[in-house]
Amino acid sequence: MKTNRIENLDDLFLEELGDLYNAENQLIKALPVMAQAAQSDKLKSAIEEHLEQTKNQANRLDEIFKDLGQKPQNIVCKAMQGLIEEGKEMINKSEKNPARDAAIIGSAQRVEHYEIAGYGTAKSHASLLGHKRVEELLAETLQEEKKANATLNEIAEGNINAEAKNCGCN
Ligand code: FE
Ligand code: ZN
Ligand code: FE
Ligand code: FE
Fold it and tell me: Could you say which of 1.20.1440.230, 1.10.357.10, 1.20.1260.10, 3.40.50.720 is the CATH number of the domain covering 9-165?
């Protein structure tokens, strides 16, 4: 069997799911680091809550592969590697203060936007391919990613960005 050649939407769809699966698993390792680095309790618990959702999203992808009669593809998501790497750089350049929290939110929102794009595309492809149940599962995750992004936005605009602006600390 030839692997990794993308010749049609079925092949592309599996590739996309493999990429998302790997991205979620990278996040399961990275989100605790971000939560740990955050100063704001609100931000910390938002990230911890999304970590639990993220574990569930990885399980959902397991279910999706099973549904399709496929094994999870191991495709390294280089985009997520880069997003996580940049987030870590920001943390390493900062102290525990509102400026770092604002940076963590920016990094986390980049991650959510990437996931929203990935799941939006995969959901649309599932629909086209007639994978009804899989489409529903992808839609659930897509909603969670959108909600996570909105929550981060609220936290940033609620006070953290303003605190970072007024912060006199180094
Ligand atoms: Fe996710
Ligand atoms: Zn990806
Ligand atoms: Fe990717
Ligand atoms: Fe997410």
Answer: 1.20.1260.10
